[in-house]
Amino acid sequence: MPGSFNDLGRFSGPGLLILSSLADGPKHGYAIMIDVQEFSGTKMEPGTLYGALTRLEQRGWIEPLPPEERRRPYRLTGAGEAVLRQQLESMNQIVQTGQQRLAAAGA
Amino acid sequence: MQIATLLRYYPPAWRARYEDEVTDVLEQHRVSYATWFDLARGAFDAHLDPRFSGATGAAGRRLRRAEIAVFCAFIAFVVAGIGFQKLTEDADKAGLMQAHAAIGLGYYAVIVGAVVALLAVVAGALPIAAIIARQAFSGGRRDLLALLVVPPLLFVAIVVWGAIDLRSSSTIDSASIRGLIGFFMLATIASAAAVSLAVVRTDLNDVVLGLARWPSIIATAAMGLSLAGVVVWGAGLHSAAPSSFALDGGVLTSYAYVTFLRVVIVMALAVVAALVALWRAPGATPTEPENAAR
Fold first, then answer.
1. d(CA B66, CA B210)
2. CA-based angle A44:A45:A46, to the nearest 5?
3. Domain assignment of residue A97, given as a range
4. What is the CATH number for A72?
5. How many other C-beta atoms are found inside a 10 Å radius of the C-beta of residue B10?
6. Would you state the pLDDT for residue B159?
7. Which of B197, B214, B56, B194 is nearest to B124 (CA)?
8. Burial track A73-82 (b if 16+ CB lie within 10 A, e otherwise)
9. How many angstroms separate the CA atoms of B62 and B284, rounded?
10. Min CA distance, B41 vs chain A (Å)?
11. What is the tens place of the pLDDT at every residue in B60-89?
12. What integer pLDDT is reported at residue B288 of this predicted model?
């Protein structure tokens, strides 16, 4: 069930952060939480992290790797990478539009 | 209590898949009040997620049918209750309630039973309604959306019908009232059918269905109490003022005893239907971890 990114509801924000975190390679749950906090300043709690992970996994945007003891790493899939690019492009357009309008208002 | 004990409140299928990982994360995480709240919210979310319920077993299907039957019985009970309310309207019967203990006792038993049944149905229906709404709106289930709009649409239609009747004439004639009551009955049946169909077509797990089990039992018992109250009220009234049953105090100016008999029959059928449905659904067992979504 690929679904759309907006269908993630309250997990769309955490979902985007997780996809971004996995963009440079597989990570397990705690490593994702630390990485997300480092690059975005967002402190993600475990309930939200795993709520988002289950939904991303269900949509085929990430996939679990064999567990290392109790830790199970996840990696981005091809579909996940495409969704991440699409979302970042959309956000980039919003950022550019906002900056242009601010610049025009300030000029 | 250790934070990890909160994981016990997640569905078995979720725990089979994620409990070890999350326990590992929690051991490294600095736990705060936000963590407790977040995990509790996550457990609630997981219970609402049909992927972690797996396929509902035969017991779950029987329980779902029983809960739908209790809901429909309650709707029939409410309609019959409107007829009973009509019987108690005139002042003479109000006076008899004060003077004769059996009539007053029966009347208050009806009221108590009706209130308890209503509260139980609301309590049992709320989690199920939340899931139906969630799947209808977030999940883009147009079939569920179409079913959910049936009751409010019909309610609006009844209000508009009544308003047009009142505007066209200061006094509503008997034919108009019969038409309105007939439409009300059809609308009630259609609304109950639409809601029941929405429940049938929604992915509900055994845990959620199990939450409505006790409210269904309580609602059925309360309907039984109301039915007993109606019978005691009628017997008391028949003993104290038998002539009042021969008056045209019933629905649509029918004889009171006709309305009374109809009320008792509908209520009795509703209670029996609810009891039979609950009897045939002894309980739902939680889904085993092997049904987990992988």
1. 11
2. 120
3. 5-106
4. 1.10.10.10
5. 24
6. 87
7. B214
8. bbebbeebee
9. 8
10. 7
11. 777 888 889 999 999 999 999 988 888 887
12. 40
**For every residue of chain A, which 3-state class applies, written as one string?**
CCCCHHHHHHHHHHHHHHHHHHCCCCECHHHHHHHHHHHHCCCCCHHHHHHHHHHHHHCCCEEECCCECCECCEEECHHHHHHHHHHHHHHHHHHHHHHHHHHHHHC
Phi, psi values for residue A68, rounded to 5°: -110, 100
Which among B182, B139, B138, B137 is positioned nearest to B158, based on CA atoms?
B182
How remote is the C-alpha of B258 from its chain's centroid? 27
Q: Name every chain B residue with its beta carbon within 8 A of the beta carbon of A12.
A: none
> CB A50 to CB B51 under 8 A?
no
- Max mean pLDDT among B160-169, B221-230, B255-264 falls in B221-230
Token readout for B157 is 């239609």
Among candidate residues B57, B39, B49, the one with its CA nearest the CA of residue B11: B49
If one counts the domains in chain A, the total is 1
Kindly report the pTM of this predicted structure. 0.58
Interatomic CA distance for residues B122 and B160, integer angstroms: 27
CB-CB: which of A48, A58, A71 is closest to B21? A71
pLDDT at B37 over 70: yes
Indicate yes or no: CB of A47 within 8 angstroms of CB of B18: no
Question: Is the Cα dihedral B263, B268, B271, B277 positive or negative?
Answer: negative
Q: How far apart are CA B180 and CA B252, in angstroms?
A: 11
Mutation pick from A28, A32, A45, A55 vs chain B, by most beta carbons of B within 10 Å, is A45
Whole-complex ipTM: 0.86
CB A57 within 8 A of CB B293: no
Across A82-91, B69-78, B252-261, B285-294, least confident range: B285-294
> Where does the pLDDT of residue B253 fall: very low under 50, low under 70, confident under 90, or very high at 90 and above?
low
Q: Which contiguous run of DSSP H or E holds residue B131? A: helix B101-137
CA distances to A81, B36, B39, B48 from B33, rounded to whole Å, are 34, 5, 10, 23
Residue A54 Cα, gap to closest chain B Cα (Å): 9
